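Posting here for the record, re: fe (iii) ion.
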Amino acid sequence: MTDTDIETAVATATGTATGTAVAPLPEQAGAAASGAAATERFRSKQSASGGAAADTQRVDTLVSEVLAAVHEVVRRHRVSYAEYDALKSWLIQVGLDGEWPLFLDVWVEHVVEEVANEDRRGSKGTIEGPYYVPGSPSFDGAAALPMRADEPGTPLLFQGRVTSVDGTPLPGARIEMWHADADGFYSRYAPGLPEWNLRGTVVADERGGFAIRTVEPAPYQIPTDGSCGRLIAAAGWHAWRPAHLHLKVSAPGHQLITTQLYFRGTRHVDDDIASAVKPELILAPAAARSGEGHEVTYDFVLDPA
Ligand code: MBD
Ligand code: FE
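Prediction output follows.
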């Protein structure tokens, strides 16, 4: 990192330079660019929602138990001052890199999602991850996601219906999809991609049906040049998520589902670094009946609110 990168990251993290709702398009590749953009996006979402109300008792319980777990690890493994200082400098650097959203969504969010949605009867959800952007271009019924004229990758037709748990179709349901391109990059978090590339919203027809044309994403590698990448290398882990489509599906009077869908037999579908794969979320696309590429049908079932 150069001094200017660090100043930019600090300014972003403290909100002194940018008060805008939309993060600027990154100009450089790598951890600093995607981390700063993800941090900025999270901060604007959080300031819009006002954040959770702090219940003193709850903060006391949760923080005390997290600290007790840390103390227990220090004692059990006889953690040294050298290791304590290594931890301190790593934690400082995660913030400077803007990688707290990435770190938390990869290693913590899956358990929060599990607890939040354990009583759902409809379709399975999974983690949102750090790269959602609200307000993507919207289309009726059947559409292609915004993409470049020469967008690389295998064409994919993704279609299905949205119903309530009792089987009632949900016309007007909104299916928001976002995903990495065939090189594993997300628009808004990597340089050189059109603003809404591979991000769009399709509104279901009168039968609750939708059809989305896109291209199959590549597996995603956590940036290797930032703090999360350094942790992964230091621990001897791998840095990969399997190829995935992100979705948010919503309809009036129903609970929104945030989910991801994966592809049977693809790399890392059995060892996702973010622990976000569930068997119900693995697609098995077939050869397209018309045109090139693949097609797959997946229906969403929403729980009443
Ligand atoms: C991703 O694309 C993602 O979905 C998650 C959860 C974490 C890092 C990158
Ligand atoms: Fe993702």
